[in-house]
Amino acid sequence: MARYWIGLAERDSVHAAVANGVCVFSGGKASPVRKLEPGDGILYYSPHESAGGAVLECFTAVGEVVDDAPWTQNWTQICAGGPYLSQGAARQSGLTWVRRCDYDAVGEVSVRPLLSELRFVAQPRHWGRTFHRGQMEIGAADFFRIADRLRAVA
Fold first, then answer.
1. Cβ neighbours of residue 133 closer than 8 Å, sequence gap 6 or more
2. 148 CB neighbour count, 10 Å cutoff
3. E strands, the chain, in order
4. Where are the alpha helices (H) located in the chain, listed in sequence order?
5. How much is the CA Rg of the chain, to the nearest whole Å?
6. Could you tell me which of 92, 96, 79 has the C-alpha nearest to residue 19?
């Protein structure tokens, strides 16, 4: 059965991941991508346009995990468009753990109008705390509520 996840990443990092068909969580740590299974749904929330950049506070991508195991890739090469390293490569300095994902064509959707509708946001007044984790699992209803809005503005 599919599980559903939100990752936290700046918009420019999300665009690089989408362009290269990969997902990455928590700064490239292995444990978050090891939780994923083929068919799991992925959303990205971007608090900023870029590291140190302007505030964005939008959902910026929706995709599905399509491979069976995490592997490492140099993030600088991902941002530059490759070349890819072999799957299963040992973690070395500068390598990021990733999973292969297929992404939908979507726009961006502000988080604020959705806050009162999302079950995983326990305290809408203090919603920012909810998104401080690099990866979190959410329910199917919340996933599809956000994904449908993203697809509607593609």
1. 8
2. 11
3. 4-8, 22-23, 41-48, 55-65, 71-74, 95-103, 109-110, 135-138
4. 11-19, 30-34, 75-80, 140-152
5. 15
6. 79
Residues 55-72: tens digit of each pLDDT:
999 999 999 999 999 999
Count of alpha carbons within 13 angstroms of residue 137, beta-carbon side: 8
Amino acid at 107: G
Residues 6+ apart with CB under 8 A from 54: 48
pLDDT tens-digit profile of 83-107? 444 444 433 457 899 999 999 999 9
CA–CA distance from 16 to each of 24, 114, 126 (Å)?
A: 10, 26, 30
Q: Rounded to an integer, what distance in angstroms lies between the CA atom of residue 28 and that of residue 92?
A: 12
Cα distance between residue 49 and residue 94, in whole Å: 23
Sequence-separated (6 or more) residues with CB below 8 Å from residue 128: none
CA distance 26 to 123: 23
